[in-house]
4-oxalocrotonate decarboxylase (Amycolatopsis azurea DSM 43854), 253 residues
Amino acid sequence: MTAEISALAERLDTAQITCADTPSLADDHEIGLADAYAIQAELVARREARGERVLGVKLGLTSEAKMAQMGVSEVIAGRLTDAMLVADGGEVSLARFIHPKVEPEVAYRLARDVDLADPAFDVESAVDAMAPAIEIIDSRYRDFRFTHTDVVADNTSAAGYSLGPWRPFGEAANRAVRLRSGDREVIGSTAAILGDPARALHALVELCRKRDIPLRAGQVVLAGAATEAVPFAPGVAEVDIAGLGRVSVRGLA
Ligand code: 0L1
Ligand code: MG
C-alpha cells in the first residue's frame, strides 16, 4: 500500500495546488480508515517539505447532521498549517480554492503538550484560551462527492482558517452563532458541536491517540462546525458567537 498511499497523496496535493478537482479515491481504490490517515500524513508532509508549518488540528463531522449525512459515528481530524491562516479582517483570494465554503467554529489554544500516552490526561487543563473562528473548507473532490475515508485522506477539506480575539478558556456551550457570507446568513448554536465544544477536545485526544497525531503547546484546535457550511462568496464572511466575539475575512474574487 505504501506506493499507493504516496500516489494518492500526490493526487490530492496536486488537486489542491492546481485548484483542479479530482474524483473520489473510492471510485477505484479500496481504502481503509488507517490508510486514509496515512495518506493525510503524507499530504501534510508534502506541505511541510515546501516550508509550511503545522499550527494546529481540526475536527470534522462533529454535528449529528454531518455524521448522519456521512453515515458515520466517529469524528475526523485534519491538520492546519500556517499557509492556511488568514488574519482576522484580512483578505484571501478565492482563486486559491476550488469551491470554498465557510463554517463557524470555536477555537481552543493548547498551553502545553498533550501527553497522549497518559489515559488520564486532562485535556481541558492544557487549554488556556478560546476564540471565535471561521474555517474555510475546500474539498478537493469533484462535486463534493466523497466518502468518509476520502475526506480523511483529503485532510478533512482543510483549506483556511481565521481566529478572532483570544479570551481565557471557559464555558462555550449553548452560545448563539451567526454566520454570514454573501447573501447567506445562518443561525445556530455551539450545542451543535457534540453538544458542547469542550467535548470536542476530549474526542480529539482519543482520536489523536488512535491515529498518532501529536498535540503540541501553542497549537490551535478547531472544534468543529456550529452550523452548516455555506459557499464562501466574494466579499466579507463573518462569524459572531455570543459572548465569545466576532471574526471576519474578505474573499477576493
Ligand atoms: O470541517 C469539517 O467538518 C469538514 C468535514 C466535511 C468535509 C466537507 O464538508 O468538505
Ligand atoms: Mg470544520
Observations:
- The domain at 2-252 is CATH 3.90.850.10 (Fumarylacetoacetate hydrolase; domain 2).
- Residues 58, 60, 103, 105, 135, 137, 222, 224-225 surround magnesium ion (ligand 2) (CB under 6 Å).
- The chain has one domain: 2-252.
- The radius of gyration is 17 Å.
